[in-house]
């Protein structure tokens, strides 16, 4: 039986499962008997994920007082929830059926939004930064599913969106019968993440996000709505041809932020992001 977010016009049997290493990490974190050494052993089973976790842990974004050389040390210094998030991020990069320019763009978009949402949550103190990271990371998981299912068709939709400006979600509904927001909410529910995560995926583009009744989900959605523009403004998609008025975003209105505040926050984030761009996106 489908859940409340899985009552969709899409074959839910085709939805992806959470990557095994990420599932195991979540299980360990939820277990009162788990240890840093056990977590390190799970992560070290995938050398690519291990290397990426250590690289990000040593970036100035996490402001470590000393270099983190081992996974066990990283877990102690960063904390279990942060390590879980970095493993989830590293796992997301490996979820693509293949990896080319489109997949790199989707990965960079997700990671930049995740880092931006975490930065905004820390700066504004309106949500848990680690929850904001996960919300930003997975808000476009539906796009990953579409691209895995039919990469050629999805690239055509994205190119058409860039050329003639119709909303990408409308194009997705026309071709797939559903948009990435509704599909993403269903995926996250299937992965047994919180309802708040599914609500963020469902409403991160929504003009009416301020009407979300759950305050935690509303704040997370507002943060992700603003952070969703960071990849464009930081050049992840090439040159930004359209001037983005951040203060006009529904998330900015919900958070009570004006244009100057948003520009200052973006400038502060961009400095740290550019210093660590290779660590974050490679």
Please characterize this protein's 3D structure.
- The chain has 17 helices and no strands.
- It is mostly helical.
- Helix 2 crosses helix 4 and helix 12 packs across helix 13.
- The relative contact order is 0.12.
- The mean pLDDT is 86.
The secondary-structure class comes to: mainly alpha
CATH topology of the largest domain, what is it called?
Hypothetical protein af1432
Computed Rg: 18 Å
The share of residues in extended strands comes to under 5%
Straight-line N-to-C gap: 39 Å
Low-confidence stretches: none
- CATH architecture classification of the largest domain: Orthogonal Bundle
Per DSSP E runs of 2 or more residues, the count of β-strands stands at 0
Give the class-level CATH name of the largest domain: Mainly Alpha
Overall mean pLDDT stands at 86
> What is the helix tally?
17
Main beta sheet: none
Q: Could you estimate the helical fraction of the residues in percent?
A: 55-70%
H and E string: HHHHHHHHHHHHHHHHH
Count the domains. Answer: 2
Query: What shape does the CA trace take?
Result: globular
């Amino acid at each position: 039986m489908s859940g409340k977010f899985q009552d969709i016009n899409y074959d839910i049997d085709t939805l992806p499962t959470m990557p095994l290493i990420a599932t195991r990490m979540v299980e360990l974190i939820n277990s009162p008997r788990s240890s840093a050494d056990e977590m390190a052993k799970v992560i070290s089973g995938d050398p690519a994920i291990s290397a990426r976790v250590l690289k990000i842990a040593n970036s100035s974004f996490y402001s470590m007082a000393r270099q983190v050389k081992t996974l066990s040390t990283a877990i102690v210094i960063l904390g279990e929830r942060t390590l879980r998030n970095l493993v989830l991020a590293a796992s997301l990069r490996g979820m693509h059926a293949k990896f080319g320019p489109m997949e790199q763009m989707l990965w960079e978009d997700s990671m930049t939004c995740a880092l931006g949402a975490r930065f905004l949550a820390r700066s504004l103190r309106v949500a848990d930064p680690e929850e904001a990271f996960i919300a930003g990371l997975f808000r476009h998981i539906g796009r990953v599913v579409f691209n895995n299912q039919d990469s050629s068709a999805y690239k055509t939709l994205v190119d058409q969106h860039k050329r003639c400006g119709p909303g990408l979600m409308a194009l997705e509904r026309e071709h797939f019968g559903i948009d990435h927001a509704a599909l993403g909410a269903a995926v996250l529910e299937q992965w047994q993440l919180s309802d708040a995560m599914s609500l963020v995926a469902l409403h991160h583009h929504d003009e009416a996000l301020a009407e979300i009744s759950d305050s935690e989900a509303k704040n997370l959605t507002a943060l992700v709505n603003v952070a969703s523009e960071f990849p464009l403004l930081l050049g992840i998609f090439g040159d930004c041809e359209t001037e983005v008025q951040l203060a006009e975003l529904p998330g900015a209105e919900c958070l009570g932020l004006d244009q100057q505040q948003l520009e200052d926050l973006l400038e502060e984030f961009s400095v740290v992001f550019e210093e660590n761009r290779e660590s974050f996106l490679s």
